[in-house]
Amino acid sequence: MPIFFVKIFGQGLAVNESVALKKEYDFHPPFNIPLFLSGNFGEPRSTHFHTGIDIRSNARVGLDVFAIEDGYVSRIGISSKGYGKVLYITHPKHQLTSVYAHLINLSPELNDYIKHIQYAQRRFEIDTILPNNLLRVTKGQVIAYSGNTGGSGGPHLHFEMRDSKTAETINPLLFGFKVQDDYAPSLMNIKLYDLGEKKNNAINKILPLQKINGIYTIAGGEVTVNTPILGISVNAFDKSLNSIGRNGLFDIQLISNGVVIFESKMDRIHFDDWRFSYSYADYDERTSRDAIFHKCFIDPCNEARMYPQYENNGIIKLDRNGPNEIKILLSDFSNNISEIKFTVYYDPQAPLFAHKPANEQSIFYCSIENSFENDFIQVAVPQGSLADDIPFKYKMIPSSKYYSNIFQVHANTDPLLDSIYISIKPQNLPAHLQSKAMIAYQEGETIKSAGGYYNKGQVETWFNKFGKFFVTTDIIPPRILQCNIVKNKRFAGKVFSFRASDNLSGIKEYNAYIDDQWILFEHDLKSLHFFHIIEGNIEPGNHTLRIELEDYKGNKGIYSYPFIK
Asked: Which of 266, 235, 263, 253 is nearest to 40 (CA)?
């Protein structure tokens, strides 16, 4: 069916800040099967807030994906990571844009359009903005097919709704898409934080929850702490019908002595606020135990716009004159609610919290730029890179394995909201290897690239984690691990494919040619898989597939596979 014929009429009503217009919409669902979710809007992922809903595709790829409303294709993205193959459709009537990601393929018309661009640019990865109304679609039209491309962890459709004017993402469930959910959020633990003068050295405390008469509470229903300034987080998740994972929460409220002092509500997310996901949940619990503890207080330099403004930003101020009655309400989009109740007392002599000895070199303040420097290393932490003040720690570990010692720059128990600058003075680095020099990052026993380059006697980079760093070199080109062509043998397949990897800095560019003619190879980063579907006729006889790979340090590998057709 052609997709170039639908006329778009007029301008509709824009989505307001409260997004309270869901009854005004009658959108076609993106799938023609019941919508079961494996991920919901706003849940904190490893590097960002989830800006859509993940709709299950019955563990299959290739399901029809439908346009939810009349509109036009405004953007197409093709990538080996992130959204993979992604389609953006603008709906002028509503001033909204719908987004469909991790697709295995686009409709034939759209696929032909983007492939023409790929061949013209000799690139697989494309992010192209289309002229308004060039490629029009109708409500309920098949526009693509579901897949598992990019950063997807399994077959599903990532679906978003965006405000076309601001590009902010809006919870799709606010637009009437039906997801059955009869389950209230599940709760396991709470965590208490000393946010007073000794917070940098406090040993914060996890308390298990128990359910009594439908209400969650802690053992005994009360706790006494030795700090007048307290914070709380909740280890919780949500499920909907047929969901198989632990999803995020829609709304959290913290009530102290009958007054709401904190709320987080997942109805609208600005892309500029992605970085604050590191501050939304307890970063140490996430990285050390893979547990999500939703903070019911806002870190001093967390400026995310999902928090309605309340006095003290969820920080509980205690005194010795009486108890604080704490209530926490957690709800999903279907208004299934779980409730926590307990009482907190303040006594300066109480054993909770214990405190570690202070051993920091200095305090890094989140509201200003911070730096550390000695004869071996320079570290700059720009303003806005920290969610809270931290007791900065540094250690140099002697090493003769690399072109520098190993430098422990703080610890990866505190999050970075943005990248920091690291510059290391190399030792005994030969002049001919300066262009191959880089900074490596050690995570456990694993060595990863932190990027960087040699510049005037230093190797410098920007990186988004604290941890262990050192200077090394990458002199090894990317290599092919496997190719489905047997050299000098007859090839009768329909797909050329190979797997390739790089030892450290990563594959930056790749190109493939049949008899010196460039051909398009698709790429999936998570599987190291490259493939080309043979669409035209290759003449009988002898041919050569040539693959050229280059990493981020300029190391090049060229591999030839002669074959007979």
From this structure: 266
Closest among 453, 378, 451, 390 to 417, alpha carbons compared: 390
Question: What's residue 321's pLDDT?
Answer: 84
CA neighbor of 356 nearest in space, from 287, 431, 413, 303: 413
The position carrying tokens 């307990």 is: 342
Contact 354, 388 (CB under 8 A): no
Question: Tokens 């290393």, residue?
Answer: 377
- Give the angle 68-74-75 at the CA atoms, nearest 5°: 105
Give the C-alpha separation, 254 to 210, whole Å.
18
User: Residue 82: exposed, middle, or buried by beta-carbon count in 10 A (0-12, 13-18, 19+)?
Assistant: middle
Two tokens, residue 110: 């759209």
Pairing of strands 507-514, 495-501: unpaired
Q: Which of 222, 255, 223 is nearest to 327 (CA)?
A: 255
CA–CA gap between residue 450 and residue 280 (Å, rounded): 25
Tokens of 208: 């298990």
At 216, the amino acid letter reads Y
The structure tokens listed for 70 are 């009349």
Check residue 475 and give left, alpha or beta (phi > 0: left; psi -120 to 50: alpha): alpha
Question: For the chain, what is the radius of gyration of the CA atoms?
Answer: 27
Contact present, 184 and 315 (Cβ < 8 Å): no
* pLDDT in the model for residue 11: 27
Contact between 295 and 306 under an 8 Å Cβ cutoff? The reply is no
Q: Measuring CA to CA, which residue among 191, 267, 270, 204 is closest to residue 234?
A: 191
How much is the pLDDT for 537? 77
Are 230 and 194 contacting, i.e. CB atoms less than 8 angstroms apart? yes
Residue 242, pLDDT score: 82
Give the containing element (helix H, strand E) for 57: none
* Residue 527, amino acid: S
**Six token digits for residue 307:** 């928090």
3-state secondary structure of 114: helix
| Residues in the chain with pLDDT values less than 70 | 1-23, 360
Taking the C-alpha atoms of residue 194 and residue 209, their distance in angstroms, rounded to an integer, is 19
Give phi and psi for 274, each to the nearest 5: -50, -45
> Buried b vs exposed e over 426-463: b needs ≥16 C-beta within 10 Å?
beebeeebeebbbbbbbeeeebebbbbbbeeebbbbeb
Query: What is the pLDDT at residue 241?
Result: 85
∠ CA 301-341-235 to the nearest 5 degrees? 50
Please provide the distance, in angstroms rounded to a whole number, between the alpha carbons at the two ends of the chain.
35
Q: Is 487 exposed, middle or buried (0-12, 13-18, 19+ CB in 10 A)?
A: exposed
Question: pTM for this one?
Answer: 0.93
User: Encoding tokens for residue 138?
Assistant: 């109708």
Collect all residues with Cβ–Cβ distance below 8 Å to 308 and sequence separation of at least 6. 263, 265
Q: What is the pLDDT of residue 360?
A: 67
Output the six-digit token pair for 290. 């893979």
Task: Provide the pLDDT for residue 46.
Answer: 85
